[in-house]
Amino acid sequence: MVNLFRCLAGAKLLTQIAATVAGGSIIALTMVGPASAGTLVYQPTNPSFGGNPNNGPNLLNLANAQNIPLANQTKAQAAAAAAGAAGGAGGSAALTPGQIFAQQLQSQLLSSFANQITQAIFGANAQQSGNFSFGTTSINFNKVGGQIQIAINDGTSITNIVVPASP
């Protein structure tokens, strides 16, 4: 009987301690000040659009660092820059309607060819290996284990791609 009273007294002590701790944390939370926020105001950086004029030289230096001098440009970069300058958006404005049609037709044919290859590799009647040719480009694929190895040879370089056999 004495042990029962000791257990009840211990339980009463634990509930008093828990109530004191909980009450203390509630008091501590109410002592924290209220949260406040200010209004957000957009301040432009570029002095051309109302920003600080002292930012001008820094922005100019950043832009100059991104420019590639003509002496260091590759032929492809120079051709892209010339096409952009001549035609505005990617040089497409300088193309004739016949050239645009030829580009679109070529794009559609390559897309159809890519769909045929994808079906041969992943479709319902998927093959274990295969070879496709289109102009000077050849594509070889082999299923090895759980992977598919694809080699694309465009006549100047070979690109190897490895993908999982099951998506």
Structure, explained:
The protein has four helices and four strands. It is an alpha+beta fold. It has a domain at 96-167. Strands 1-2-3-4 form a four-stranded antiparallel β-sheet, with helices on one face. A hairpin with a 2-residue loop joins β2 (137-144) and β3 (147-153).
User: Number of helical segments?
Assistant: 4
The general outline is extended
Percent helix: 40-55%
Mean pLDDT: 76
Report the uncertain regions: 1-5
Biggest sheet, spatial arrangement of strands = 1-2-3-4
Classify the secondary structure makeup into a structural class. Answer: alpha+beta
Features:
single chain; 167 residues; alpha+beta; 4 helices; extended
Topology of this protein?
Blueprint: H1 2-30, H2 56-66, H3 75-87, H4 97-122, E1 129-134, E2 137-144, E3 147-153, E4 158-164
Antiparallel strand pairs: 1-2, 2-3, 3-4
Question: In a nutshell, what does this entry contain?
Answer:
This protein has helices at residues 2-30, 56-66, 75-87, 97-122; strands spanning 129-134, 137-144, 147-153, 158-164.
